Amino acid sequence: ETSNWILIRLQLFAIVCLIIFHSTTIQQQNYQSLITMSCRFLFVSLVAFLAITDALVTPDGRRQFLSGIAGGAAASILSSVAGVENANAAIAKTGPSSPWTGDYDDPGHPGCLRQVKVVGAPLRGDGTRSPYPVVEVKGYDGSGSGGLCTERPTRADIWTVTGSLKNNEAKLDFSSKGGPKDLLAKYEDGGIVFPDGNKWTKVLLGTKNRMPEDMRTLKSLN
Fold first, then answer.
1. Per-position DSSP letters for 34-51, written without gaps between them
2. pTM for this predicted structure
3. Max Cα separation, the chain?
4. What are the pLDDT digits (tens) for 66-93?
5. How far is Cα of residue 143 from the mean position of the Cα atoms in its chain?
6. Nearest to 166 by CA among 186, 183, 147
7. 170-177 long-range contacts, Cβ below 8 Å, gap at least 24?
């Protein structure tokens, strides 16, 4: 009986669509195309609706249908959350919004300049750019022994180290200073931690007195 009821409704719906399509009051072809698409959409929707109502006729059908909806909804939510997390992980913050950006104290070189900036990756030849931003580290190690800085550097004294940032881990190239080319560093608890245990602690108010006297920022060195 349920199947016969479904077939009767489908037949009536098809007849209505055909009548509308062949109506003599419609003269324009674009109107016919619009009605054709509308009928197709309504037909598919009706088929889906009838399938759902048929499934809900019996208790077992209702349980299976509701279980399917719950499972599909849960999978959709988990997929959306994972997608958002992956997108956030891929798009690292740059500029002042990055926790890496700022001035630091290096216990190995007290009073010396240590400034870190995170900028977008440069454009490639094909017009694209890497999703991983660039880390720029500028510093000064002092002119005397012991790694202590008691004077401000000149522009020529400042060294620059660069690297890439991925998932809160920076790979820095210290080869220009005689160090490793792929030194890994992590940002933890308000500072940058290196493999040897050294930790640069961020100075929230900055260290402008450690920069060259004729400079307010190190932007012009980029």
1. HHHHHHHHHHHHHHHHHH
2. 0.57
3. 99
4. 565 455 544 554 454 444 444 444 356 8
5. 43
6. 186
7. 170/100, 170/135, 172/135, 172/137
